[in-house]
Amino acid sequence: xxxxAMTPDLPPDPVINAWPLPYEQRxxxxxxxxxxxxxxxxxxxxxxxxxxxxxEREIYGSRTGNSGHYYIDRDGSIHVFVAPERVAHHTKGYNxxxxxxxxxxxxxxxxxxxxxxxxxxxxxxxxxxxxLLALLARLRRDIPSLEFIAGHEDLDQDxxxxxxxxxxxxxxxxxxxxxxxxxxxxDAVALERxxx
Length: 196
Description:
Blueprint: H1 2-6, E1 16-18, E2 37-42, H2 48-56, E3 70-72, E4 78-80, E5 98-103, H3 126-142, E6 148-151, H4 152-155, E7 159-161, E8 169-171, H5 182-188, E9 192-193
């Protein structure tokens, strides 16, 4: 730990606020050696409080819901809703092998599927990006099997009828969206971006 703290080219360990979801212990446990992927999301909600409310909703028969593992607010604060040793429901088909990181960002809120509102104009804050880089460095150190990174939009490219025009298709997921600083992130972390 001391060597980590004294290494100048690595960001300091971020402060992570434990805020486990009420159903966290009902989520499937897994060995961290099975985790090789980080999926970057944005909440597409206006604030952390509403993201928390969505995360707490029990929508499955197992009395669990949809959530990422980590949430990064606009001020750079990091909150862990689900421990990485548990499988969170955040990306269809990739949950067992991945960690989901959600950045608070309005995205297309409140009309996610309206064809006239598909722009994602809100930039990510410098504090969010700095916190993300520190979190990724820590995860990379703590989970040696971690090798890949992707955006939710890379892994879920399903199109669905838009809410305003059933004859027009829109992407179901677009996060983290066009304002996400991929080049900065990929330059800073030793993870390979995948796009199946």
